[in-house]
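Hey, can you fold this one?
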Amino acid sequence: MEDKTKMQTENISNSNEINNKDNLKEENNIQNKENNKISPITKNSSLSPDLFSFPYISEYKCILCGLIPSPETANEEIDTGILYCDECLKKKLSEKKECKESEIKEKKYRKIKDENKIFYKVFKNLNIKCPYKCEWKGIWVDLDNHLNECKYGIRYCKYKIIGCEFYDDNKKIIEHEKNNDKYHLDMALQYIKKNNIVKKKIKFEMGETCKTSVHPHIMTYMTTISWFCDGRKLPHGCYSINYSFNSSTPRFRCNQCDFDLCDECIVHYLV
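Sure. Predicted structure:
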């Protein structure tokens, strides 16, 4: 009887050990999957030299990390022409601040995009392959559009700017953006509150004229009879709650075309 009980205990112990190993294996698989998850690539990402066919691509490498910095964010040392990606340059300058100023020869850097237009033009027209290994080939300036369409592409939610860190393949991103309106609205409200973003009111003077992006003629700020804002005919619609106004409410008007815009619309379309 004792032998039978002992055998049952050993079987239970072995079974628990096997289950624990299986659970640990599953946890490890999940962890490995997370560790191997591909991060989104954007037009600002530094990329592997292997993606380029240019024979002298080594001349475009960041001197510190060996990747090819994006032409949108690449920096160069003015005296030497040595290139740095944003992250490496920030790290270098951060370390520099910790050193004694007397031990450092001051060096100056500049953004390729802003201050070396000729090199920037050559840089952004380098031939490149899709970093997600699809069959696409093109030039770097067209890469961003391709990444938004690539069937293997991974990208961030378009609401990343307000704090959404979700990213996945293009199909799942579209579903995420479509099905999470309330989540993104709450996030936007928190972003506005955190950053103290307040809608600015612009005060217009009677007789003031302006040009807009939605109408070919000059418009004049004036009062007349009751009127309707023609912003209601535009794709977004009128930005005011009610597009019908009485004669005491001034508007921007084009008498030539009988076209009117309210104060709320005009601030969105001013040129």
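The chain has four domains: 1-36, 38-127, 157-198, 209-269. Let me know if you want another pass with a different chain boundary.
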